[in-house]
Amino acid sequence: MAFIKIKPDLKQNMSRLSDILNIPEQLLISANLGASLDEFYFPGVNQQAGKDAPPAETYEQLELLVNERPRLDEEQWLTETIVYDSAALKNEIEKLTECFPFVTSHILGRSALGQPIYELCLGAEDAEKTTHINASFHANEWITTSVLMKWLKEYCLFLCTGQHVLGFSPPELFRQTKLSVVPLVNPDGVDLVLLGPEHLGIERDAFDEMNEHQPDFKEWKANINGVDLNNQFPSDWEIEKRRKPPKSPSYRDYPGDEPLTEPEAIVMRDLIASQPPDRLVALHTQGEEIYWGYKGLEPPESSKVIQTFERLSGYKGVRFIDSYAGFRDWFIHFYQKEGYTVELGKGKNPLPLSQFDDIYCKSRGILWASCFFES
Ligand SMILES: [Zn+2]
After folding, report:
1. Beta partners for 279?
2. 286 preceded by cis ω (within 30°)?
3. Is 137 a residue whose pLDDT tops 90?
4. Bridge partner list, 64
5. What is the CA radius of gyration of the chain?
6. Phi-psi label, residue 114: left if phi above 0, alpha if psi -120 to 50, beta otherwise
7. How confident is the model at residue 2 (pLDDT cuts 50, 70, 90)?
8. CATH number of the domain at 73-188+262-370, please?
9. What percent of the chain has pLDDT over 70?
10. Is 346 helix (H, G, I), strand (E, B) or coil?
11. Which of 81, 165, 193, 223 has the highest CB neighbour count under 10 A?
12. CA 27 to centroid of ligand 1, rounded, Å
């Protein structure tokens, strides 16, 4: 973890430290919540020297140490587009929490194959609003994780540089909103699509029937048990159970034998039930549409927020669709709070990485606006 040793007295004056570092005070407070008295955490890269360097005794010494740190915007991994299998995500979460100590990561639970499902959190401790964003419920929609992580890195970077974007002030969003991000809901499924069954230590034949004898797994949408995680939630689940074509586990669309049989769906239900956010955004592909209503149970704010989303993305808001038992459906049904499913990009899933720049350019405004609440 990146920190420097510091004379505890110096930490009494966070606003002075904020001036020296040119970083919002709120970020420093957030980054130092768990720090011991003589440790000082602040955004930066390669501060491994922290343990061995002599402690900063004065503000001047601190300033010298700070000036030695590399510039954040020269770090290539921060701006790179990455395709995330579960190992790549783990690697990047380590870098991100090291570089930006105001971001915390937790393992919410485990997938069917025992892989961790991560949540990343940031936002001021006394922030009044909460937003949750997730990606890759569906395995063949892995590009959504790339979009979400690229934006999260942009958010962290702009928090430190103070850069405004699309009319939003990142430090203001940080003060206003606690953000919860689950970038990879279905790690087993995404690994199957990107790396193949052998990588997971499973014989190819074991999936052949569920995969309807297709030569590869690139269209696999379900979790590793052949259950569609976004058809697993107890809100008119019976309707989907009755009408979805697969009557047994399949590479796509099977709602399960009952609601919430799959560990990934249970993890997401538990996360929301323990602290229902004010706003929920689920990233999927494809269609350039945003679903925002559910049986008229959505709150009145949704009809305003969707206009902002439409304006920033050029995507089309759709209030009602004939679909049930999804994560967002259940959220609106049970909590009557804002929920949006964003269908990124256009084409046939899996969307190719060549679409990434176009998708990101259109959708990043939705992600920024997700953290903004009209006061
Ligand atoms: Zn989807």
Report:
1. 131, 338
2. yes
3. yes
4. none
5. 22
6. left
7. low
8. 3.40.630.10
9. 97
10. coil
11. 223
12. 34
Residue 237's φ and ψ, nearest 5 degrees, are -60, -35
pTM: 0.94
- pLDDT tens, 70-91? 777 778 899 999 999 999 999 9
pLDDT tens-digit map of 272-311: 999 999 999 999 999 999 999 999 999 999 999 999 999 9
d(CA 143, ligand 1 centre) in Å: 11
- Where do the structural domains in the chain lie, given as residue ranges? 4-70, 73-188+262-370
pLDDT, position 1? 46
CA 344 – ligand 1 centroid, Å: 10
Token couple for 78: 């921060």
The alpha carbon of 254 and the centre of ligand 1 are apart by a number of angstroms equal to: 13
Separation between Cα atoms, residue 205 and residue 197, nearest integer Å: 9
Rounded to the nearest angstrom, the distance between the alpha carbon of 144 and the centre of ligand 1 is 9
Contact partners, residue 319, CB within 8 Å, separation at least 6: 291, 292, 293
| Angstrom distance (rounded) from CA 374 to CA 363 | 20
For residue 50, the model assigns a pLDDT of: 53
Q: 316 forms bridges with which residues in the sheet?
A: 289
- Residue 229 Cα to ligand 1 midpoint, Å, equals 9
User: Which residues have a catalytic role annotated?
Assistant: 343
What is the DSSP code string of 240-308?
HHHHSS-SS--SS----SSTT-SHHHHHHHHHHHHS--SEEEEEEESSSEEE--STT-S-THHHHHHHH
